[in-house]
Amino acid sequence: MQRFQFHQARSIEEALDLLSEKGERTKVIAGGTDLIPALRNEEVRPEGVLDILEIEALRGIRELEDRVWFGPTTTFTEIEESSVLKCHFPLLVQAASSVGGPQIRNRGTVGGNIVNASPAADVLPALVALGAELEVQSKREGIRRLPIEGAIQGPYRCVIKGDELLTGIVIKKYPPETRSLFKKLGRRNAMARARMNLSLLVRLDGSGAVEELRVVPGAVMPVAKRIARAEKILLGKKLAPSLLEEAAQVMEEEIVKTTGIRWSTAYKLPVIQAVFKQSVMELLG
Amino acid sequence: MKKRGIGIGSMFYGMGYGFSRQDIGSAIVEICEDGSVIVRSGEVDYGQGSDTIFSQIVAEELGIRYDSIQMITADTFTTPNSGPTSASRLTYVVGNAMLKAARALRKTLQTVAEEILGEKDLLFVDEEVFSESHPEKRISFERLAKEAHNRGLPMVEAAWHDITTADVDPETGQGDAYDVYAYATHLAEVEVDTDTGKVDVLRIVAIVDAGKAINPLNVEGQIEGGVAMGLGYALTEEIKLEGGYLKTKSLGEYMIPTSLDVPPIETHIVEVPVSTGPYGAKGVGEPALIPTAPAILNAIANALGVRVVDLPANLENLHRLIREGLRESQTVGG
Predict the structure, then answer these.
(1) Do B320 and A267 touch (CB under 8 A)?
(2) What is the mean pLDDT of residues A241-262?
(3) CA distance to partner chain B, nearest, from residue A66 (Å)
(4) Chain B contact for A187, CB < 8 A?
(5) Which residue on chain A is closest to B232 by alpha carbon?
(6) What is the pLDDT of residues B169-215, one digit of tens each?
(7) Which residues on chain A are in Cβ contact (under 8 Å) with B261?
(8) Nearest to B258 among A190, A266, A278 (CB)
(9) CB–CB contact A189 B316 (8 Å)
(10) Scanning every residue of chain A, which has its alpha carbon at the shortest distance from the alpha carbon of B262?
(11) Shortest CA distance to B65 belongs to which of B114, B128, B133?
(12) Using an 8 Å Cβ cutoff, are B233 and B286 in contact?
């Protein structure tokens, strides 16, 4: 294990003070399920590590009138067990319960899943589908808010700067008739990275036409994002096999456009299409 | 689309090393003055339960509680060489050595008990020795041990059991390569997602011939563990090499099944005693594992009509096979 300075903050202010001074050379640690292996493998060599788990203001789940706020050090287990999240965002709960195994879910945090920005993250794409907003603070800029889509620039690259701290995640509530589904395909049923996952959110209008649709495949592109072109094909229309087929095709094109052809595409491209079609049918069929 | 299939895998397995390779088990059993028993033997119990089995064998012969026996194993300073823990051989080979040593001690104790009790029809049961026809004539095992020590009789016995076989004919390869064979059959029921290549094993029925299950719960545990290993071998476990370097360096990459991957396992222990085993027993370690993968792969073939020939049948490999199978059948079907 390499040597580094270990800091522990008791408040957001204390953490921001330290980050404004040493942020570029300091890694923030919460559950440590990503950072500790990276430190062991010497993939990162920070001068200091800042523990934020003791900061009370960074944890918990609070239901507000039109949205839900939760702190970045909320663990996957806490998400899984939250009645508020189960009621309003079952997609997020499903995604959180698919992470690793019980030990990792007890330890790993939602903020870590966002900031680490692994292309194979499970909760991150679900948050993209839910249109989550990130609340970020620094001494330099105070509080700024940014949509999660766009906050991830590339594999393991999040726009949150060295002197900034993710201090909250906010999701707006959506109409109760909205349906959602999270699907994960791994090499085994627990303790496996996603070969791919899919976050799907759909709402039909009174006539049965698609009023809202969000499609976010994960682990098939460097960054999880909504496939707007595929969504558009189904929007405003009633579900038909030919339309679904077309949307799946477009999704494949979009993935190839961002990712290119890799060794894994021979498997991933047809299978993500199939998973997409299966999932839509499961939600609406 | 999801397709289901059922498959069977059967095997026979040569127990021990065979082919004239040295295969000897040994045991030193000692009865102390206070009636406690110490067993020394060179093999290691790495979790499969051989220490328990050996304790049971010695306890059965001496009529004492198996958990009162102290096992000292795998210590080159104090234990005799008993060969490695491998080839499913411990119960069958070392168990016989235990049996011989314990029986030799019992014979000595019997002479002492006959002298003290004046009866010959003696039973060794529940830490006591008594006459079957005159059950009031009895002596505790502890007291008997003390009496034997007082008489200066040998209360340590060492025994060896050798199952080294003759070799097969070097010209023809014919002959009886092993001392004894084990048999097992597994059935698997699977559901294959033809779109993703994902295999869900729904159920395994495992039937294993143990000769005699000295500890049925232990045998069941070995069968369930074997099935889990066989399932990983069939579906997920893979060692990757690149230019001679190992690429699969951790259990994060080498995918063994988790508890969420192992299906309900129905175990059936068949007991056809083998005359050369202790109480008719033979090993079940590897026999419990060998038929699982063939059963699963046969079930996949039954579900899909295409056969996996390269392991593991993981997502990518199976998906490729399904697509190739489809193309072939389309070509054949015009």
Answers:
(1) yes
(2) 95
(3) 37
(4) yes
(5) A188
(6) 999 999 999 999 999 999 999 999 999 999 999 999 999 999 999 99
(7) 188-190
(8) A190
(9) no
(10) A189
(11) B128
(12) no
The model's pLDDT over B95-141, given as tens digits with 9 standing for 90+, comes to: 999 999 999 999 999 999 999 999 999 999 999 999 999 999 999 99
Give the residue from chain A lying closest to B322, CA to CA. A267
Name which CATH class applies to B2-14+179-324.
alpha beta
A285 at the B interface (CB within 8 A)? no
Instruction: Answer whether B320 sits within 8 Å of A266, measured CB to CB.
Output: yes
Q: Which CATH class is domain A181-284?
A: alpha beta
Q: Which long-range contacts (CB under 8 A, 24 or more apart) does A255-259 make?
A: A255/A217, A255/A220, A255/A221, A255/A227, A258/A221, A258/A222, A258/A223, A259/A220, A259/A221, A259/A222
Show me where the domains of chain B are located: 2-14+179-324, 24-162
Listed residue (B136, B10, B121, B129) closest to B63, CA to CA? B129
pLDDT per position as a tens digit, B233-250: 999 999 999 999 999 999
CB contact under 8 A, B258 and A274: no
Q: Which chain A residues in 13-52 lie under 8 Å from chain B, judged by CB atoms?
A: none
CATH for A56-172? 3.30.465.10
Name the residue in chain A with its Cα closest to that of B253: A192
Sheet of strand A48-51, all strands in order from the earlier edge strand to the far edge: A5-8, A48-51, A26-29
The dihedrals phi and psi of A260, each to the nearest 5 degrees, come to 75, -175
* DSSP at B38: E
List the catalytic residues of B.
Answer: 286
Same fold? B2-14+179-324, B24-162: yes
User: What does pTM read for this prediction?
Assistant: 0.92
The domain limits of chain A are 5-51, 56-172, 181-284
Identity of the residue in B196, B236, B323 whose CB atom sits nearest the CB atom of A185: B196
**Chain B residues near residue A270 by CB distance under 8 angstroms:** 195, 319, 323
Query: Rounded to a whole number, what is the distance in Å from the CA of B233 to chain A's nearest CA?
Result: 13
Taking only the tens place, the pLDDT of each residue in A9-33 is 999 999 999 999 999 999 999 999 9
Peptide bond into B312 cis (omega under 30): yes
Host H or E run for residue A63: strand A61-63
Given an 8 Å threshold on Cβ–Cβ distance, is A190 in contact with B261? Answer: yes
Q: What angle do CA B52, B276, B28 make, to 5 degrees?
A: 45
| Domain A5-51 falls under CATH 3.30.43.10 | yes
pLDDT tens figures, A46-105: 999 999 999 999 999 999 999 999 999 999 999 999 999 999 999 999 999 999 999 999
Q: What is the CATH number that goes with domain B24-162?
A: 3.30.365.10
User: Which carries the bigger pLDDT value, residue B330 or residue A127?
Assistant: A127
Q: Say yes or no: ipTM exceeds 0.85.
A: yes
